[in-house]
Amino acid sequence: MRAVKLSADRLSPPSHPVARLPEEWVARVSEWGEPAYRGKQIFDWIHRQGVLDPDEMSNLPKSLRARLQEEGVGWPIAIVSSHESTDRTRKLLVGMPDGERVETVLIPQINDDSVVTQCISSQVGCAMGCVFCASGVAGLKRQMSDAEIVAQVLLGRRELSPDRRVRNVVFMGMGEPLHNYDAVARALVLLTHPDGLDLSKRRVTVSTSGLVKQIDQLGRDFDGQVQLAISLHAVRDQARSEIMPVNRKHGLDELTEALRRYPLSKRQRITIEYTLIRGVNDSPRDAREMVELLKGIPVKVNLIPMNPISASDLKAPDQSHVLRFQEELTRRGLSVFIRKTRGDDVAAACGQLAFHGESRRSPRA
Predict the structure, then answer these.
(1) Could you say which of 119, 126, 133, 350 is catalytic?
(2) Does 331 lie in the same domain as 298?
(3) b/e per residue 289-325 (b: at least 16 CB within 10 A)
């Protein structure tokens, strides 16, 4: 079933007209004395056709278009700059009315560049403080709104040529998505709404550093249909607490119990993201203990050799070391992939997104 479990009355109110669901638009235009179908037309213009300028909504009467202008319908974000990598990965710096900026990345599939994965941000910065991540080192400035989150995908789709489309969305940009749960939940409903972008929930992934209460809530609210990825990055509490302060609140035992509770269909697996950092978490012992830690949990593991960030001197192991680590895991029965670095020449790779022009040194640097 494609429809999400959450309805408008179970979500936090929309922050902006762009974040309204069809039934909310129906209610709003009814207040203006317009027929219900006008509300559905407005939602279609915004979320299916990607038209946010009321003057371009050609099947609406001029009086309603003028009302929508007064209501504030329009783009909540705008592209400030665009940088394309040699591998055609494209990083967009987007600005918001208050002057804050975030980054979102369009990543073409390696063997079919008509299929694009978009990596989107959920916060301006991040409060989690992970030492290998540029946005975590920089700190949290503010939450992004539901409309700002969704508009990244609407903008991304607009920037692609007609023969290319966003098929997958990953909440792996700036911010901890589950630290901004209410806005992210509404964004998930909008992104997967059958009358809008209509993304399959199996093609939308929420990545978290391990906020246990919110993992449980995501599982309940979306019946486990939204894909879950866990930023693990270490397999012992002391080591993980040093590089990921969130572990001091939610240790590994608590986190893995939450993963066991997360509702999955028979063919679903949780993605384990593991950034390999030279001399920190890349030993054969780390590999063996990861297998024990994840025993009984349906997972696949993405190994991510650390991408360099200006705020830290931490580095990736050499390639032969990465391959040995993968072999340690696969011969013990885990499904393991090494994530190919994409967009690193424009600082668009995993862990490199940060405030434009800002950085701060990590305490471990």
Answers:
(1) 350
(2) yes
(3) bbbebbeebbbebbbbbbbbbebbebbbbeeeebeeb
